[in-house]
Amino acid sequence: IMFSLINLARHAGINELPTVAQASTGVEEAVQSVKTKVYPNPTNGLTTMVFAKELTGSEYRITDLTGRAVSSGLISATNMTTDFSSLASGLYVVLATKGKYATRERLVISK
């Protein structure tokens, strides 16, 4: 596009174009989505989460539908069982990221 603008400007007799600053998004690489299994789902509390090995060592967050974090923990193994019985019935989201890897899975608490 810039080449076309330069040619168009020169054709119109304009020899100089103003300098255009290039903006950067800050995103260096694409995020790769990895699968997480959550079962049983719906659950009344005790839940097993199976994370991709790429997420080991990172933190998971459980958020409500407004995005408010209601629980979190360290992903110490790919297969973890956690008790969410303290959460109210409703729909939640399990989130985790590590480097370029990310996961997002729904969790339904039903009492």
C-alpha-based Rg, rounded: 23 Å
Q: Total helix count?
A: 1
Main structural class: mainly beta
Shape: globular
Strand content: 35-45%
Q: What is the CA-CA span between the terminal residues?
A: 58 Å
Quick one: how many beta strands? 8
Q: What is the element string, with H for helices and E for strands? A: HEEEEEEEE
Cross-sheet strand order for the largest sheet: 1-8-7-4-5
Low-confidence stretches: 1-24
- Average pLDDT, rounded to a whole number, is 83
- What summary fits the major beta sheet? 5 strands, mixed
Key words describing this protein structure:
globular; 3-stranded antiparallel beta sheet; disordered N terminus
How would you characterize the overall build of this protein?
- This protein is mainly beta and 111 residues long.
- It has one helix at residues 2-11; strands spanning 32-33, 37-39, 46-50, 59-63, 69-74, 79-83, 90-98, 101-109.
- Strand 7 (90-98) and strand 8 (101-109) form a beta hairpin.
- The model is unreliable at 1-24 (pLDDT under 50).
Entry summary:
This protein is mainly beta and 111 residues long. Helices cover 9% and strands 40% of the residues. The strands form two sheets. A five-stranded mixed sheet has the order 1-8-7-4-5, with no helix packed on it.
